[in-house]
């Protein structure tokens, strides 16, 4: 298949892996930012091709994983209202809130729908004027233009029964938060290619400079990731810390200007809560004053129940790359995709679910077999 | 669990949800792990008997010396009419194929119709005509039925249940005169084995052996993608048609050629990945697959890439997996390819001893991964 199979070619993969092996002289820890990249890495068994000196850690770039529990609770509460049609991307539905997920809300009679675009939700709003249509606007910079567009369009067309429940987060502030942690293990970043198709990569230059860390904008196919790793290893071995673009077939330095303009027209930068990481300043979007009437968080009063958190899940450490999923005591035991304790076990982009589905639980089971039975 | 050091830098929090298991959710019907839990925890304990314990697509029953296969299936597809078929031919093919997977020639069907008030008579006629055609092509008779009508809003236009009876013909039973006689199902006690087959042989997961070859009768994912494309309003240059078809001719050809068929399973709900996980679990073996050998049409692959789905988990309605001894694999493939419904048959992997209960896939780029059973519905990803 064109534009796919050439990036999954076994021979080229072998050559890239060989090039990485030739280049590497010592241990390096590299973080892929985006959950889509994590998914590819585990799905293609890519780590088996890498030399043992290269460790990949899985970053916080899964929108499902970092959406705060309070907001999931709010989404569930809104979805349970009889006057509401609640629209969401598919993989938000299974994420556990304090007591229920959106799937539970659906099973309980809530009108919860999977859509592929916020503009589809806007269409539903136009077709169902008696209903309040709420779209769960989660995601990084990648999904921001379409979300901004839906609000802009709703405003333009005078659609009043449409609103967004927003948890929009940004990559660069999260990278800075990780890098400024004294425990930070990460020596190089594979930046999220799709985010950069929108935003470009100019904002990464100051980060690379300040933290002396190489950053390579990387795509999502196995060969993209291998090439990204090779470029990072090359920089690390030659003590460089530059911003490079592996994903040049999709990403331009300045990004997609019209998309950025639409985002800037509708959204402004705001502090955001990250599930597992806490609040990071200037790390997300909220609606500008002019569009605030489309904010579902304001339109629907708070439920008042405080969110419940548990110490059993170490997703904070996972999302910072300090622990691997199978190093969690609950992994595959108390926490499974059927009964997730934390969001990274839910989305296929979540590091824990990716590990679980693609077999890292074997490692866990092997380890467990050696432990005394509790 | 959070270690103190990192908590200083970034405040950690994590949720402990109360698991809602007091209600049926859609994933209980998705064919994945929750469906299995439902069967294991509710249905098997309630109805437990030796025939049910065969855990196959249908039950094989010995009645007065003849061996019959009996199966049932309900069809709740939306939309009712989709590219390449409709709920009517699907309801015939689904049950006929379940019988075929027992190695049985399909003979008789029943049909139960649950119709929603307001359903157009035209739609009903279209569906019934397709059922009639599909039954005629498959050589089965629809011999009994039932109709109920429910209030508007209480059914999705139409639900159909079909049950089927087929006969395992000794004439083409590979147990006769072949080395299969020596095979003993490993995980069934004597009483259960007796219910299966006096010779102690049966087509089913318990007969799968390390060394078996895994064949798949064609490319994957057409039915699921055909349905999704209509539901999601996706349009393609060349529309994807459902692969809905009667696969008995392919099974019959295998049996008549004297292929020692150890197990057959259609790749419906949950796709190849779920099916092979069931067999690996029930047969207590490991199944290894080679991604490069698994055929997926370019358009199907493209839709899966766009929607973030894995074709290994997408439903098929005219594809099955066959487990045969490695030495017969090449001949079995030749036989399958000579029958139109399985002309795209391919060798996709083999059965190994361990790790038991596991399906391992060698990816295109040469890495290995475990192919797990789905936990719920396959959900479209965000980005």
Describe this structure as you would to a colleague.
The complex is a heterodimer of chains A (374) and B (383). Chain A is an alpha/beta fold. Chain A is globular, with a radius of gyration of 21 Å. Chain A starts with 9 loop residues before the first helix and ends in a 5-residue tail after the last helix. With 383 residues, chain B is an alpha+beta fold. Chain B has two domains: 117 residues, 60s Ribosomal Protein L30, Chain: A; 169 residues, Phosphoribosyl-aminoimidazole Synthetase, Chain A, domain 2 (Alpha-Beta Complex). Chain B is built from ten helices and 14 strands. In chain B, helix 3 runs parallel beside helix 4.
SSE layout:
The complex is a heterodimer of chains A (374) and B (383).
Chain A: H1 10-23, E1 28-34, H2 35-43, E2 54-61, H3 63-66, H4 69-79, E3 84-88, H5 102-107, E4 111-114, H6 118-127, E5 132-139, H7 144-157, E6 162-169, H8 171-179, E7 188-192, H9 193-199, H10 205-211, E8 215-218, H11 222-237, E9 243-245, H12 257-266, E10 267-274, E11 278-287, H13 296-299, H14 315-319, H15 351-357, H16 360-369
Parallel strand pairs in A: 1-2, 1-7, 3-4, 3-5, 5-6, 7-8, 8-9
Antiparallel strand pairs in A: 6-11, 10-11
Helix pairs in contact in A: 1-11, 6-7, 7-12
Chain B: H1 4-9, H2 33-47, E1 59-63, E2 66-75, E3 81-82, E4 85-86, H3 87-100, E5 105-116, H4 121-138, E6 141-150, E7 158-168, H5 190-196, E8 212-216, H6 222-231, H7 248-256, E9 263-266, H8 271-283, E10 286-290, H9 298-307, E11 320-325, H10 326-337, E12 346-352, E13 358-362, E14 368-370
Parallel strand pairs in B: 5-6, 10-13
Antiparallel strand pairs in B: 1-2, 2-7, 3-4, 5-7, 8-11, 8-12, 9-11, 10-12, 13-14
Helix pairs in contact in B: 3-4
């Amino acid at each position: 298949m064109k534009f796919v199979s050439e990036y999954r070619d076994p021979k080229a993969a072998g050559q890239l892996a060989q090039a990485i092996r030739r280049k590497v002289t010592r241990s390096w820890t590299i973080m892929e930012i985006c959950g889509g990249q994590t998914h590819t890495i585990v799905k293609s068994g890519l780590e088996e091709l890498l030399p043992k000196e290269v460790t990949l850690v899985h970053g916080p770039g899964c929108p499902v994983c970092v959406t705060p529990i309070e907001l999931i609770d709010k989404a569930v509460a809104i979805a349970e209202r009889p006057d509401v049609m609640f629209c969401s991307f598919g993989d938000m539905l299974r994420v556990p809130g304090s007591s229920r997920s959106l799937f539970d809300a659906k099973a309980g009679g809530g009108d919860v729908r999977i859509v592929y675009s916020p503009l589809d939700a806007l269409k539903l709003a136009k077709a169902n004027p008696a209903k309040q249509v709420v779209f769960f606007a989660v995601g990084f910079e990648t999904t921001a233009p379409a979300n901004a567009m839906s609000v802009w369009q709703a405003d333009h067309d005078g659609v009043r029964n449409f609103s967004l429940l927003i948890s929009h987060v940004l990559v660069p502030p999260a990278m800075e938060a990780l890098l400024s942690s004294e425990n930070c293990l990460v020596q190089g970043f594979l930046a999220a290619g799709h985010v950069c198709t929108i935003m470009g990569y100019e904002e990464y230059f100051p980060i690379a400079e300040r933290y002396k860390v190489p950053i390579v904008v990387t795509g999502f196919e196995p060969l993209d990731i291998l090439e990204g790793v090779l470029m990072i290893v090359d920089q690390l071995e030659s003590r460089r810390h530059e911003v490079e673009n592996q994903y040049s077939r999709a990403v331009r330095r300045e990004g997609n200007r019209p998309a950025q303009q639409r985002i800037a027209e509708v959204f402004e930068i705001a502090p955001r809560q990250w599930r597992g990481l806490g609040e990071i300043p200037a790390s997300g979007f909220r609606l500008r004053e002019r569009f605030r009437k489309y904010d579902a968080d304001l339109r629907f009063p708070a439920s008042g129940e405080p969110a419940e958190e548990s110490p059993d899940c170490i997703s904070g450490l996972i999302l910072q790359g300090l622990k691997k999923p199978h190093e969690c005591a609950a992994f595959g035991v108390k926490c499974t995709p059927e009964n997730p304790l934390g969001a990274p076990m839910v989305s296929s982009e979540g590091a824990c679910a990716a590990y679980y589905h693609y077999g890292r639980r074997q490692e866990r089971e092997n380890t467990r077999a050696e432990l005394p039975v509790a | 669990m959070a270690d103190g050091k990192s908590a200083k830098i970034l405040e950690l929090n994590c949720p402990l949800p109360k698991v809602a298991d007091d209600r049926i959710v859609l994933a209980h019907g998705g064919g994945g792990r929750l469906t299995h839990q439902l069967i294991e925890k509710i249905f098997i304990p309630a109805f437990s008997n030796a025939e049910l314990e065969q855990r196959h697509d249908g039950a094989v029953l010995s009645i007065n010396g003849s061996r019959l296969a009996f199966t049932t299936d309900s069809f709740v597809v939306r939309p009712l009419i989709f590219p390449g078929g409709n709920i009517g031919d699907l309801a015939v093919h689904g049950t006929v194929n379940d019988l075929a997977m027992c190695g049985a020639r399909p003979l008789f069907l029943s049909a139960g119709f649950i119709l929603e008030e307001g359903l157009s008579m035209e739609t009903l006629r279209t569906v019934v005509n397709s059922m009639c055609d599909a039954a005629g092509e498959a050589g089965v008779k629809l011999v009994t039925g039932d109709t109920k009508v429910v209030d508007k809003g209480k059914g999705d236009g139409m639900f159909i249940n079909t049950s089927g009876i087929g006969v395992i013909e000794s004439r083409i039973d590979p147990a006769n005169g072949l080395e299969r006689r020596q095979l003993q199902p490993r995980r069934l006690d004597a009483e259960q084995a007796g219910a299966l087959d006096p010779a102690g042989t049966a087509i089913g997961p318990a007969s799968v052996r390390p060394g078996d070859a895994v064949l798949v009768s064609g490319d994957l994912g057409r039915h699921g993608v055909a349905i999704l494309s209509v539901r999601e309003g996706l349009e393609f240059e060349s529309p994807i048609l459902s692969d809905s078809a009667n696969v008995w001719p392919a099974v019959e050809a295998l049996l008549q050629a004297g292929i020692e068929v150890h197990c057959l399973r259609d790749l419906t709900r949950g796709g190849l990945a779920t099916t092979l996980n069931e067999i690996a679990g029930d047969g207590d073996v490991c199944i290894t697959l080679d991604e490069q050998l698994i055929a997926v049409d370019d358009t199907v692959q493209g839709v899966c890439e766009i929607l973030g789905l894995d074709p290994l988990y997408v439903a098929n309605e005219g594809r099955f997996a066959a487990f045969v001894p490695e030495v017969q694999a090449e001949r079995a493939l030749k036989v399958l390819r000579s029958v139109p419904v399985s002309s795209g048959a391919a060798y996709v992997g083999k059965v190994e001893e361990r790790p038991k209960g596991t399906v391992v896939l060698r990816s295109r780029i040469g890495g290995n991964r475990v192919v797990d059973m789905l936990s719920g519905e396959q959900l479209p990803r965000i980005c």
